[in-house]
Write a structure and sequence with these properties.
- The protein is of the alpha+beta class.
- It folds into 2 domains: about 30 residues; about 120 residues, TolA/TonB C-terminal domain, CATH 3.30.2420.
- The protein has 5 helices and 7 strands.
- It starts with a helix and ends with a strand.
Length: about 160
């Protein structure tokens, strides 16, 4: 009886690993050469949120830049650095660390659904969310030349000197 149970477990594991291998092959094939499948229905595309896009959202002032991604990254960092106010209570209690903030950039460039993915302390988490809510993009991300809602994650570092 134990032998039958062991054989069933081994057979099940072998069957599942074969399924996993097949699923991995499908994923590998669908991402080959970064060819991203777009939903056939335009309505699905309109409502879908993407983390992998062919062109990231463009930050204000970077639409005509030769490298929009580099410009956007630099401008976002500059904006965060110049608009973040280190909370006095956090400074007094030497609270520091990196807050990971997740948000969506809509097709028109508006930032929405801002939330903390991994926080440090509610005091500095709230400040990171406040500043990220203020970000302004010229447009959302592009997926094969179609504007899409793009999900982004931004680390906001709080460090005392």
């Amino acid at each position: 009886m134990k032998l039958i149970a062991l054989l069933l477990v081994l057979f099940s594991a072998e069957f599942l690993s074969a399924q996993v291998v097949e699923e991995c092959k499908k994923v590998e094939t669908s991402f080959k050469d970064y060819d991203i499948a777009i939903p056939a229905d335009e309505t699905n595309l309109r409502d879908s949120v993407f983390t992998i896009v062919t062109s990231f959202p463009v930050y204000v002032g970077c639409l005509n830049a030769p490298n929009q991604n580099d410009c956007s990254a630099k401008e976002v960092i500059k904006f965060i650095a110049s608009n973040t106010v280190y909370p006095e209570v956090a400074r007094e209690n030497e609270i520091q660390g990196t807050v990971y903030v997740n948000y969506k950039v809509l097709r028109d460039g508006h930032v929405t659904d801002v939330k903390v993915l991994r926080g440090v302390n509610p005091i500095i988490d709230d400040e990171a969310v406040r500043v990220v809510r203020m970000l302004k993009y010229e447009r959302g991300g592009l997926l094969q030349d179609k504007l899409v809602i793009t999900e982004m994650t931004l680390p906001v570092r709080f460090a005392l000197k």
